[in-house]
Amino acid sequence: MNNPRYKAGYVAVIGRPNVGKSTLINQILQQKLSIVSHKPQTTRHQILAIHSSENSQIVFIDTPGIHNQKGTALNKHLNQTAQSSSHGVDVVLFLVEAMKWTDEDLRAAKVMSQSDADKILVINKVDKIKQKESLIPFVEKIMQDFEFDAIHYISALKNKQIAPLLDAINNRLPVGPPIFDEEQVSDRSTRFFISELIREQLMERFHQELPYSVTVNIEAYEIKEGMHHIHAIIWVERKNQKMIIIGKQGEAIKQIGIKARKEIEQFIEARVHLKLWVKVKSSWTDDIRAIEALGYTDEFKD
Question: How far is CA 164 from the centre of its chain?
Fold first, then answer.
């Protein structure tokens, strides 16, 4: 590294579910790393998203939204994953939806406030607000209880005012060499992203019929003569959920497979042969061993 002013550091992105964290990171990287849907708790894993430029490397930590739901081991895991992300980072982005403040925003703000890092308040979805002057008292009310080093108003979905936000982040990073290879965009494997792309299609199609008790595991992945052969298992908790996903004469799972295959081919830039199976693992969302076996490997704490 010949640039003595090169900067690199970690940035945690914190907020309640469905506030636009994954959309923002996907927009910055100009690549789909985190799946997005209108259903809260879409993001279940902590994902490192690496944005490298000529003068800096920003390692974003995309986390599950901090929520108030309790009861299952999975919910506990999601909150613990999100809460741990703000430790040991250089900057915290706290995302809030413009003109919307809930109990879950408050809980996320309390987690954010425990970090020693510089904090940037990011007001997202400002394109939806016609009377922009109404944002002033909204922000002032937030800042009565929480301190921030900067405030930025953006639309992650429409890529508005993202560049000034990146400048503000870069200004707060320490000088140092890249943390990861500059060609690398994430710490996650191709298998992980493929399973997430399949899960995204499930959440898009069954966002009303199915709760959060669906996950995807890649059972086999083999490349033959340029074709990527992928076998994936969709896990649910009950037999009736299995029947919903399969659909009448298998039509529903067929459509899921078609759409997921297109997304996967675009992601890996190769031809894909995708096979899907649906299996039942009773009450897996409330079983720590089952959760860990299905890929949620963060350590559980009391």
Answer: 22
Residue 89 is assigned to a structural domain of this protein: yes
Q: What mean pLDDT is predicted for residues 251-263?
A: 96
Which domain, by its residues, includes 276? 190-293
Q: For the chain, how many structural domains are there in total? A: 2
pLDDT at 8: 96
CATH number for the domain harbouring residue 268: 3.30.300.20
The answer to whether position 185 is within a domain reads no
Residue at 183 is within a domain: no
Q: What is the pTM for the complete model shown? A: 0.73
